[in-house]
């Protein structure tokens, strides 16, 4: 799920870009090892797109736990194209695009947490994956917690990539919201006008995928180029936009997730939670006038305290034994900022789990 600030960032740019700002894409080099792109059929009407790196695994005497990567809101499995090959050298690995996005089915319903958990269970069944380590970014944290609570025998460990957050608790007013909105509106005014097409009677849109990448770079790290093309498509009349179905899915998931309260206490498997310590405004500092820098930093600190109470503090209170790392130099998309460090942290965590069955 996007943080409140990410939602504000989406509002600060034209509405057509809101989804991509939550599920952004930039111009990072393509991963050296390409996955097998396939689909898994859940029902007669719903199938999910997968990126499967299992063929890259160097087989050994020990059978490692499979890793299953789940994405943040709006992203597709291609968002892991830089991280996944680093992990796939040591573990069987698949990344799943949830319903509503990318090449997965986009039915009108089924975006609540419970249905997304069942989608995951069916996908694991179809893939023959009995016991896995789940890795999830952002909104996927709710799917990790809910799945592990319902099917504990299927989960050896959970890895939260800036995703262990009680989103029900964050529905309340953010004390920094008004200040954030003002700063983001200022940042919007600095965006080059020629990056947009503004057709009469239609919403503004990026002129191209290259223009979209430049827009995303205002406040987000570079994303795999494969993700850029997965989340936004050319449309009649020129320019690129996320599909209408994806925007509807985003809205439905957001509404469902805000009604879900994560409960970590019943979970008996080990937990690793990596938290971003960098302000979501970090990349906007150069666009904020010097006279407002002090105010901006005060807003950022207030926003951080607001999120910490429902995230890190809530997890620590419920599961004091969880392994928690805070990365001061990482943004919400910490696995894009630091793919090797993320891979190393996951591998250390998995190495400490009880051995998988041969």
Instruction: Report the CATH C-level class of the domain at 30-172 and 252-288 and 320-351.
Output: Alpha Beta
Widest sheet: strand ordering = 1-2-4-3-5-6-11-12
CATH topology-level fold name of the domain at 30-172 and 252-288 and 320-351? Rossmann fold
Q: What is the name of the CATH superfamily of the domain at 30-172 and 252-288 and 320-351? A: Alpha/Beta hydrolase fold, catalytic domain
The strand count comes to 12
Largest sheet: 8 strands, mixed
SS-based class: alpha/beta
- Anisotropy-based shape: globular
Oligomer: single chain
Helix content: 25-40%
Q: What is the count of DSSP helices, taking H or I runs of 4+ residues? A: 13
The fraction of residues in strands falls at 5-15%
Uncertain runs: 1-32
Distance between the termini: 36 Å
What is the rounded Rg? 20 Å
Mean pLDDT comes to 87
The arrangement of helices and strands along the chain is: HHEEEHEHEHEHEEHHEEHEHHEHH
**CATH architecture of the domain at 30-172 and 252-288 and 320-351, please?**
3-Layer(aba) Sandwich
Core attributes:
eight-stranded mixed sheet, 36% helix, single chain, 358 residues, Rossmann fold, disordered N terminus, 15% strand, two-stranded antiparallel sheet
Short description:
With 358 residues, the protein is an alpha/beta fold. Helices cover 36% and strands 15% of the residues.
Give your account of this protein's structure.
The strands form 3 sheets. The protein has an 8-stranded mixed sheet, with helices on both faces. It has a two-stranded antiparallel ribbon with strand order 7-8. It is globular. Strand 3, helix 3 (84-88) and strand 4 form a beta-alpha-beta unit. It has helices at residues 4-12, 18-22, 84-88, 113-127, 140-150, 177-189, 209-216, 225-231, 244-257, 293-310, 312-318, 334-337, 339-351; strands at 36-41, 47-52, 67-70, 93-97, 132-137, 155-161, 196-197, 205-206, 233-234, 240-241, 271-276, 323-327. The chain has a domain at 30-172 and 252-288 and 320-351: Alpha/Beta hydrolase fold, catalytic domain (Rossmann fold). Helix 1 (4-12) runs parallel beside helix 6 (177-189) and helix 4 packs across helix 5 (140-150). 48% of the residues are buried. The chain has 13 helices and 12 strands. With 358 residues, it is α/β, with parallel strands linked by helices. Helix content is 36%, strand content 15%. Mean pLDDT is 87; it is low at 1-32.
